[in-house]
TrEMBL record, chain A:
It comes from Devosia enhydra. Pfam families: BPD_transp_1. Residues 72-280, 366-560 form the ABC transmembrane type-1 domain. PROSITE patterns: ABC_TM1. GO terms for biological process: transmembrane transport. GO terms for cellular component: plasma membrane. Belongs to the binding-protein-dependent transport system permease family. Keywords: Cell inner membrane, Cell membrane, Membrane, Transmembrane, Transmembrane helix, Transport. This is Iron(III) transport system permease protein. It is a multi-pass membrane protein.
Automatic annotation (TrEMBL), chain B:
Belongs to the ABC transporter superfamily. It comes from Devosia enhydra. GO terms for cellular component: ATP-binding cassette (ABC) transporter complex. GO terms for molecular function: ABC-type transporter activity; ATP binding; ATP hydrolysis activity. This is Iron(III) transport system ATP-binding protein. It comes from the Bacteria. The keyword Nucleotide-binding applies.
Length: 576, 360
């Protein structure tokens, strides 16, 4: 059996002229223009000499400012504290859901992963609706803060809370995967020598999954560093500036003239993200050797008499965290105007009617986001299939390098990528002679850069599991390479590419971070629209729009889920 | 030190029955091997004794005290047993010393005594000096010893071993077998040892319990299993017995059985009633004589292979197509050569129902 599963890797086949080389050249151009140039130029721009000609003047100037210092500190505090919250929630949930016989574990898992499907700005909006003085839900209970006071979410604490919840699923997934790889024998050996379940958890299971917890924490930290939606909606009104919102405010206020300065600020974001990802990589390398065998998954511990109280507590907690804010969002959308108390008499669908057909700008945003998401997912899929084929199946060196580089735009914070895109596309395009800055195309360019990975990873993962014999058999019967790609490999990876494309559509459809820096009048996206409606003080309309977007994303997630389970196991991020 | 009683135990995984009514009494201080092909339920039976699985129905007692039965279940941590896992299950984040010490700490043993018991357990298995190693830094045999030390440090009343030698090479396996015998002698603890290797079971155990398809086939000393197998399965699984259809004629005055094998009358031993039966023949029960020797059964040499010191000779009987007999010879005959067979010994079993139906 082992002999069958480890076939000799086929010798890389030399590329033929001209179809294949043209295709590869196209892929190279794609990655060069959309990945290498934006991130490379960002560095060059930030490292420029200052106005007085001193070395690294731009960086020195940018980093010396008081607002930078405060934002840097705030970012560290917010990311650190929210990571702590994510770790506590994610690890606790993973232990409860994977190790005990709690009632309704599958449903609880779904609810705990829900925040992953909801973009940060909508989560923030939901919590604003839940926690503010005009909260329809707290109002019903008589618990709302007194009218006229500031929403308690508009604070560092609010940012930490919402980001911590938003990123808890990342820790949950990492720890759940870690738990699944703890051999059952280790747990049973502990019980045989007399350790009760609680002590088995503390002395055996927790040390065994520590690497997974740390890896999940690193991921949550990197996500928190790059988060824009939460600090934008909670921090800007609360006057708590983080690095991402500082960059946004600078670019928004002063335009492209401050590109050098924001590039220098962006370095810090990149540095923090790299530090987090490096820690994660080191942990994963190290922990590979620690547990050398995977066996059957351990039976859940029986909670016994505690099953009911723990079950009720968990359900209440999860419903409060995952479902209540969404109910608040819907309730806010049903309020006819800000400040009106929600009741059966006052309830109104006017806000939904307005966002769906009452505002030309909102409708334009619907059209823009849909078209952008469609084009981005289609192009990314079309690029991902041949790139993965050349990199994985044909083991072409250049394609492997391009594949590696495609990680970067997704790993760096979106704000950083947006700055790089502006730097590259602000000057007029060569030959064509016009600039795409301020147009639809620059947002598309940013999406094509950022989301390529979401299609590339599932396709490459599927190709890695495909028997190389399929490709070799086609070679033996004389099928030319591009035909092999089209007739043999493409049908095999189609479900994965489709799942990846839908993930891209979901991500692009309610994207805010990139478009917030790249939009202009006429090219508003839905993310920007929600942000601005809320910014203008039209919370009910923002909530209604957010509800519609969330519903659309949920339906898409359902489709992705089905495709993933049926046709492409292991490619959907939330399926463990 | 303790006795174990398994009474009418059944167990299913989903709809698949794994144990179908097992009764087994293990005596205090005994070394019992549970032997059977993979999937026969032997590991499940061991895990049931440990409390790692729950019974479908039946009862398990240790020292007469009910561990599991109607309305009662004692958690594995309260059974005071030791267990050595096939994977060894050493905790990867603890040193060898911590691995051994952990159980003592869980049982509330005071620190000075703990230290002393860890030292003597590691000395008993010859691991002194490797206390601070992590399990990953040990060889396979050392891991096995560490797992054993972890088990004996607690002085459990029973030690359960789940194919503990399966991951070792032949040489180490032999050394560890002697180690198990020595520890059993020195501690006097009851050992229950699961294996699919009949020679290992025979070499180690006082008694062997042979299982097949969730049922006990026979429990007895290794000698009894070999010489007097109770069922066709035991005869075939232990000691490579050939099974030939015979007709049992009756018992003679001397106590031996008169049987006919392919029209050829022989005397053998066994406990079958007159009617169709099965003759179990071991290689040393068969004597090869020249062809057409008076009072012998004609046969033909099918295959010859050298086994170091003797040749294993595979024989076919023209009178009984489809059956093969193995014999042992000091000189190699030619494949295809016609010979004749005489039999010394053998054991006659009552034929299973399927064979009876065929004969009728």
């Amino acid at each position: 059996m082992a002999a069958v599963s480890t076939p000799r890797p086929p010798r890389p086949e030399r590329l033929r002229i001209p179809g294949e080389q043209l295709l590869l050249a196209g892929l190279f151009l794609y990655v060069l223009v959309l990945v290498v140039l934006p991130l490379g130029r960002l560095f060059i721009e930030g490292l420029k000499q200052g106005e007085a000609g001193e070395w690294l003047g731009v960086v020195r100037e940018a980093w010396a400012g008081r607002s930078f210092g405060r934002a840097f500190w705030n970012t560290l505090v917010a990311a650190g504290a929210s990571t702590l919250l994510s770790v506590v929630l994610g690890t606790g949930a993973a232990l409860l859901l994977r190790l005990t016989d709690l009632p309704g574990r599958a449903a609880l898992m779904f609810l705990m992963l829900l925040p992953m499907l909801i973009p940060p700005q909508i989560s923030a909006l939901a919590w604003i609706g839940l926690g503010g003085p005009s909260s329809p839900i707290l109002g019903l209970l008589g618990l709302a803060p007194p009218p006229g006071t500031t929403n308690p979410l508009y604070s560092m604490g609010g940012i930490i809370w919402v980001m911590g919840l938003e990123h808890a699923p990342l820790v949950l997934l990492a720890v759940a995967a870690g738990l699944a790889s703890v051999p059952r024998d280790l747990i049973e050996a502990g019980r045989i020598v007399g350790a009760r379940p609680a002590r088995v958890v503390v002395h055996i299971i927790l040390p065994a999954i520590a690497p997974s917890v740390l890896a999940g924490a690193a991921l949550a930290f990197v996500s928190a560093i790059g988060n824009f939606g939460v600090p934008a909606l909670l921090g800007i009104p609360g006057r708590v500036t983080l690095l991402t919102t500082l960059i946004y405010q600078r670019l928004n206020g002063f335009g492209p003239s401050v590109l050098g300065e924001v590039a220098a600020i962006a370095f810090v974001l990149v540095g923090l993200a790299i530090a987090g990802l490096a820690i994660r990589t080191i942990i994963q390398r190290r922990s590979g050797a620690a547990i050398d065998r995977t066996g059957p998954i351990a039976d859940p511990f029986a909670l016994g008499r505690l099953r009911l109280p723990v079950g009720v507590l968990t359900w209440v907690g999860v419903l409060l965290i995952s479902v209540l804010p969404l109910l608040a969002l819907i309730a806010t959308a049903l309020v006819p105007a800000l400040g009106v108390k929600l009741s059966l008499e006052t309830l109104s669908f006017a806000n939904f009617a307005w966002v769906l057909s009452g505002s030309a700008m909102v409708q334009r945003a619907f059209v823009n986001s849909t078209i952008l998401a469609l084009i981005a997912s289609a192009i990314c899929c079309i690029v991902a299939v041949p790139l993965a084929y050349f990199a994985v199946t044909r083991r072409n060196r250049l394609a492997q390098l391009l594949d590696l580089l495609s990680d970067a735009p997704y790993a760096v914070p979106g704000t950083v990528l947006a700055i790089g895109i502006i730097i590259v596309f602000l000057p007029p395009l060569p030959v064509l002679g016009f600039s795409i800055y301020g147009s639809f195309a620059i947002i598309l360019a940013a999406y094509l850069s950022r989301f390529l990975l979401l299609a590339l990873r599932p396709v490459a993962a599927t190709l890695r599991t495909v028997d190389p014999g399929l490709e070799e058999a086609a070679r033996i019967v004389g099928t030319p390479p591009l035909r092999r790609l089209w007739h043999v490999m493409t049908p095999i990876v189609l479900p994965s590419a489709l799942a990846g494309g839908l993930l891209i559509f979901m991500s692009a459809f309610n994207e805010l971070t990139l478009s917030a820096l790249l939009w202009s009048t006429g090219t508003e996206t839905l993310g920007v629209m929600v942000f601005f409606l809320q910014y203008e003080g039209n919370s009910p309309a923002a909530a209604a729009l957010a509800t519609v977007i969330t519903a659309a994303v949920m339906i898409l997630a359902l489709i992705v889920d089905v495709i993933g389970r049926r046709f492409a196991p292991g490619v959907v991020p939330w399926q463990v | 030190m303790a006795s174990v009683d398994v009474i009418a135990a059944t167990k299913s995984f989903g709809k698949t029955p794994v144990l179908r009514g097992v009764d087994l009494a293990i005596a205090d201080g005994e070394f019992l091997a549970l032997l059977g092909p993979s999937g026969c339920g032997k590991t499940t039976l061991l895990r049931l004794i440990a409390g790692l699985e729950r019974l479908g129905s039946g009862e398990i007692r240790i020292d007469g005290e009910v561990m599991e039965g109607p309305g009662r279940f004692v958690d594995p941590e309260d059974r005071h047993l030791g267990m050595v896992f096939q994977s060894y299950a050493l905790w990867p984040h603890m040193s060898v010393r911590r691995n051994v010490e952990f159980g003592l700490a869980m049982r509330g043993v005071a620190r000075p005594e703990r230290r002393q018991r860890v030292a003597s357990a590691l000395a008993a298995v010859g691991l002194t000096g490797l206390e601070d190693r992590r399990p990953q830094a040990l060889s396979g045999g050392q891991r096995q010893r560490a797992a054993l030390a972890r088990c004996i440090a607690l002085s459990p009343r029973i030690i359960l071993l789940d194919e503990p030698l399966a991951n070792l090479d032949a040489h180490l396996r032999h050394a560890m077998q002697q180690e198990f015998r020595r520890l059993h002698r020195e501690t006097g603890t009851t050992f229950v040892f699961v294996t699919h290797d009949q020679s290992e079971a025979m070499a180690l155990a006082d008694r062997v319990a042979v299982m097949d398809k969730g049922q006990l086939q026979q429990v007895g000393t290794p000698e009894a299993l070999y010489a007097e197998p109770a069922t066709a399965m035991v005869a075939a699984f232990v000691g490579k017995g050939a099974l030939l259809p015979v007709a049992v004629e009756g018992r003679s005055q001397g106590g031996s059985l008169s049987i006919t094998l392919a029209g050829h009358r022989i005397e053998s031993r066994g406990d079958a009633a007159p009617g169709p039966g099965l003759l179990c023949l071991r290689p040393d029960d068969v004597v090869i004589v020249p062809a057409n020797f008076p009072g012998s059964l004609p046969a033909r040499v099918a295959e010859v292979s050298y086994r170091g010191g003797h040749y294993a000779v595979d024989l076919v009987l023209p009178a009984l197509p489809g059956h093969r007999i193995e014999a042992s010879m000091r000189h190699a005959p030619q494949p295809g050569e016609a010979v004749s067979l005489q039999f010394e010994g053998g054991w006659v079993l009552a034929a299973p129902d399927a064979v009876r139906a065929e004969a009728a």
